[in-house]
Amino acid sequence: MKHLLTTLILSIMSSPIQAQKWLDTNLYPFNNKYIQLDAGKMHYVDQGKGDVILFVHGTPTWSFLYRKYITELSKNYRCIAIDHIGFGLSEKPEEFNGKPQSHSKNLSEFIEKIDLKEITIVVHDFGGPIGLSSAIQNHNRIKQIVMFNTWLWETKNNSEALKVDKIINSGIGKFVYLRMNFSPKVLLKKGFYEKKKLTKKIHKQYTNPFPNKSSRNSLLNIGKSLVGSSDWYQEQWKNLDKLEHKPWLILWGTKDKFIKTDYLKKWKKRLPNAETKEFNCGHFIQEEKTKETIDEIKEFMKREN
User: Fold this and answer.
1) What's the CA gap between 177 and 172, in Å, rounded?
2) Closest CA to 110 of 83, 76, 79, 143
3) Can you state the percent helix, strand and coil of the chain, rounding each to 5?
4) Can you give the pTM of this predicted structure?
5) Beta strands in the chain, from DSSP E residues, in sequence order
6) What tens digit of pLDDT does each residue of 60-90 get?
7) Cα–Cα distance measured from residue 122 to residue 139, given in angstroms and rounded to the nearest whole number
8) Cα angle 182-70-200, degrees, rounded to a multiple of 5
9) Are 74 and 101 within 8 A, CB to CB?
10) In a 10 Å sphere around its CB, with 0-12 CB exposed, 13-18 middle and 19+ buried, how is residue 182 labelled?
11) What sign does the CA torsion over 287, 291, 296, 300 have?
């Protein structure tokens, strides 16, 4: 009865793409689905049938980052990609605190409400601590992990993180994030090694979800959490043993200016049995090395199945 009620609610809340005039449905040809969580209405994509692949984005991206993965992998798998509350096509409530631990709680609520099992979870950037924390909490539902550039340990002793934290917590930091849409307009560009991969057409799909000051709180709040949630990251790192024995595929951009190869070394030390593939690209591997990483995920899924 519980699952039947959930299905009915989701059916009522689902609708074809229509809402946002800026949304390029040629690039993002999916149906909108929505689910009401405690924190707000979450948008997600649910395409295909079969084993579940759950895509979790970071900042300032949204499920658009995984559009080509969904299109290709949904031919053989059930591909689900969420937009965190405050991002993409999800609701942007001003009262939501936007911390990664809150996003992780939302993701766990989503997984439980949809009743996902045997999940291959794919994480990137802030989606790493968000997704991996949720995976730790729901480890019995997780089959394996695919990980792009990310971290899961304390940041309060990282000098580069502290520099960013100082800026983002200043008056100037708040101004450029909220008034100038700094994160998707400027930082996103810096994350690319091969700049031509970020065309104006694609870039608009990352800047347009944040049209005004009130819609950008999620960007500022998660930025403040880079160091602000340091102790929470470390707590997740300590609890990673619940996932360590599962199959891992690490896909890493070695030209990333934000999350560098030192991070990868730490992951390799913690996960010596993980399969690792390195690519000559920046932070947004999904845009720069799309086909190559899709092929790696395909092979990983075949082997582990």
Assistant:
1) 9
2) 83
3) 50, 15, 35
4) 0.94
5) 33-37, 40-47, 52-56, 78-82, 119-123, 142-147, 248-253, 275-279
6) 999 999 999 999 999 999 999 999 999 999 9
7) 14
8) 35
9) no
10) buried
11) positive
